[in-house]
Design a protein that fits this description.
This protein has 356 residues and is α/β, with parallel strands linked by helices. 35% of the residues lie in helices and 17% in strands. The longest helix is centred in the middle third of the chain and has 20 residues.
Amino acid sequence: MLDFYPLAKPVFHSLDPETAHNLTIKMLSRGLTGKIGRPQRFDRLKTNVFGLTLSNPVGLAAGFDKNADTLCGSLALGFGFVEAGTVTPKPQSGNDKPRLFRLTKDKAVINRFGFNNNGLEYFAGKLSAHKCPNGGIVGANVGANKDATDRTADYETGVRRLYGLSDYFTVNISSPNTPGLRALQSKAALEDLINRVLDVRSEKVAEGLARIPILVKIAPDLTDDDIRDIADITLSTEIDGLIVSNTTIERPQSLKSTSKEEGGGLSGAPLMEPSTTMLRRVYQAISGAKPLIGVGGIASGLDAYCKIKAGASLVQLYSALVYEGPGLVEKIKSDLNRLLREDGFSNISDAVGKDC
């Protein structure tokens, strides 16, 4: 498979990061993927998680396609699933610009977008209209408006409006860029939120619609008490799993780039180690009872494999695409297949949690 990103990268990196991001969205929405060839398929990478059948475990993380504009274009890159959003009930412009920063020396990104998106109605229209030639799993990541007086009600609204239009939902309570949002990870608030969202699903199932998996995305900056509380709620409710983790507010001493002190969430290579440690701790806290999606710092097949052996049934990436381009997805799949074969695993599911 040919990848033309190495030729285009200097042009994209000469642009303001958000301008380059928006240009990429426009290109993908028009079917311009930057590579030639059909995505590879490996039997070892086929898996069934949350009751969903996926051609491979490598997904596109939320935050890239905020408005579900590029579902088919993203899936054409070879992802097994893509997650669009975060979407809020009302459109909102997000935080002031500049709000996206490349940390090139660190292969990292800082963003403080603040859930900028076109709102539920636009998002629902895109989900309703998408028909990708080769299919693919699509998730909807829902959030709360910055000015909401009842943020939990915003999550209920999102799930209710989009129910039946996506293959799964992610409840995003861990973005550091909406003031006070992470407070929803406290035990009482999270329990209330999850129960209210699950009640919406129960209503829809009672109306004859299918049961759609609902996941919760958590932060990488949690304490032992936080992990214990989240594990208790995960095990005591019908939530289907967790995504570990969102961007971090920490700033490692190892960062070299001039933008390292910008406010917002840090993602990319520096997040690989702490997010994988958090993933392993959460997997152990729930004794592997429910599936996890591992996110943070993945830039190679070996990175993805480390997440899987630490407890992830699926993985997601985003920031590494900024530096490696769209051909990275196929390389990760190929390397992951080779690593599984070398270790004697006949299927990706056999390797989940083996380091735990």
